[in-house]
Amino acid sequence: MKPFASIALFVLLGLVSAVAIGFGPDLSLTQWGYDEEQEKLSERIVIKFSHVVAENTPKGLAVDRFAQLVKTKTNGRVEVQVFANSTLHTEKTEIPALMNGEIQMIAPAFSHLSGTIPQWALLELPYVFRDQQDVENVFQGEIGRMLFATLDQSNMKGMAYWGNGFKQITANRPILMPNDFKGQRIRIIPSKVLDEQFRTLRALPVGSSFNDLYSMLASGEVDGEENTISNVYTKRLYQVQTNMTISNHNYLGYVVIMNQEFWNKLPADIQRDIEEALVEATRFNNALSVSMNENQLEKLKEMDTIDIHEQTQEERTAWRQALQPVYDKFAPSIGKPLMDKINELHQAR
To answer: Residue 123: which of 95, 97, 146, 156 has the closest Cα?
Structure first.
């Protein structure tokens, strides 16, 4: 056994010597298979951004624009992975998933926050936004900052407000005055405020996922719904509804939120790049939402597949008066500070 061991040792020493002589002092990590690209990949920061609407809506396009801007501004150090159309999470699961860190960014509708943070019901009140100027004043002003502050307790960081546009009513019969809602099954985003709004009008609200909406209308499970023109157009709801009233009675907006713990761990320069990208994406979104709703309303008129009625001032006044009880019911839970701010906004113009 000893001669065999000696031979094995001799062979091993020979191999080591050959390697040392053959490669010498020029031996590098690259020659041993070191992959610089793989190292860069391991250092890349990944942000999973989940949302529930189509890619060709104002929000969907803004998320894609944001992802590209982040990639450019960080020189590829940050990758925003976009999951649209509820492919990763639905309206019900996206907020819990964000809070526990499973995903890093979402942009839920205001209605999806008001169930757990009552102050957000403010932005769901009927006719709380009278026009686009009100929207901009709230998003960019003190009210927007006050609402962001309510997210801190839930491991969420408010980053930006994005708009989709004013909501309109669609149905299979004309909806002109409050009495026309009686007995109509209206699909809504699940929300206490929206539920109360339509019950006040003596309609029958039905909460459901956005992605179920078309099939619910097509099957007759519901008679109508409320939505932005861009959603009516891109989801082709005009194929399963005969009437639309341009009422602007509510506003469909989103709050862009990041997981707070994830944000706190990002390097300062990355935080700055993300904030800059969001400013640009927000400007893009808010301009696009206005132009898209205007342009697609004209397309709907040209298609002549759905009868479109523009709400008169008399009708608008009747709707607002009929919906005043919604304010009375939710003002206490929203809180006096925010209600006072809205009153100031309405009195200022």
So the answer is: 146
